[in-house]
Write a structure and sequence with these properties.
single chain, mainly alpha
Length: 301
């Protein structure tokens, strides 16, 4: 495979790493930093960062952006708000097991939405890859005990996660229709700007209506800083670029890597023990991605 053809797959792997970190950090600060505040500040700072190198392009394409403002704002609503904000709210209520399962479900949702909206089809190889990948996620989050799945119960957090998952699936599919004249960075800058505008009144309601200010401490600084640079700026740009190159269906398979990185982060940073079911789940996930993307990868180079 040529290096240019391999680049989207590498960037998608980085996305999964950032998303895994986002879930870990989001759960860690759930009782300390209000979810709407976390989402507002991450998008505001992300917008300011991306603006430093996209301001000229945004100005040159201002007529196009104004003409496409409804589409760009829709992308912002479905990703930054529909997924980002709801994801942090859900982490206030649901368990890590349920969160990881819904994250694995996202890949399947993207395939279904892509089929319904764009008419994308997937064959036996891709379908088998989906089954293997989701099976690997299930093995990891249930610790190899099928009884965990049988005893799962849904709460308000799980319902919110389901809505967030569907929202991001719609975003991933519609991203393919982004104006080709805009670079991935410029498109993200527009999305971040709209996301900030949308989140501002929601943050004010949380701050003054529910009296939930952001604490001024080290935890707030490093968590918002990480959310801004990793899951917001880099992951969004990497994802947008990769979806344009290989399509939302193929890109969606790499979401399965997030639980893998979650395990690695937990064992390396939190001192948790690496068990055999972790290894089995990781093998299934990588096998699923290989089956699902082998055809596209070979065609790419």
């Amino acid at each position: 495979m040529k290096s240019s053809a391999a680049l989207p797959y590498f960037l998608l792997t980085c996305c999964a790493l950032f998303w895994a970190g986002s879930s870990v950090v989001g759960r860690y600060v759930a009782g300390e930093i209000p979810p709407m505040a976390l989402n507002f500040w991450r998008w505001l700072f992300a917008f300011l960062i991306v603006l430093t190198w996209t301001a000229g392009e945004l100005w040159e394409n201002r007529i196009l952006i104004l003409a496409k403002w409804k589409f760009i704002s829709f992308l912002a609503l479905s990703s930054a708000i529909g997924f980002g904000a709801l994801h942090y709210v859900a982490l206030q209520y649901t368990t890590a097991i349920n969160g990881a399962l819904f994250q694995g479900l996202m890949s399947i949702c993207i395939l279904i939405v892509a089929f319904i909206i764009l008419g994308d089809r997937f064959g036996i190889r891709e379908g088998f890859g989906v089954i293997l990948g989701f099976g690997g996620v299930a093995v990891i989050v249930t610790r190899g005990d099928i009884g965990v799945l049988l005893n799962l119960t849904l709460n308000i957090g799980d319902i919110i996660l389901l809505v967030a998952t569907m929202s991001y699936s719609v975003y991933a599919v519609f991203l393919r229709r982004a104006p080709p004249e805009l670079s991935s960075s410029a498109l993200m800058a527009g999305m971040f700007g709209f996301a900030t505008l949308f989140m501002f009144p929601v943050w004010l309601i949380e701050l003054y209506g529910f009296n939930r200010p952001v604490p001024v401490n080290l935890t707030a600084f490093w968590s918002i800083g990480f959310m801004t640079i990793g899951p917001s700026v880099l992951a969004q740009i990497f994802w947008a670029y990769s979806v344009k190159k290989i399509g939302p269906g193929t890109a969606g398979y790499f979401i399965y890597l997030a639980p893998v990185f979650g395990v690695l982060l937990a064992t390396s940073l939190l001192g948790e023990i690496f068990f055999m079911f972790h290894a089995a789940g990781i093998i299934l996930i990588f096998a699923g991605i290989w089956f699902a993307t082998r055809k596209q990868a070979c065609n790419g180079g």
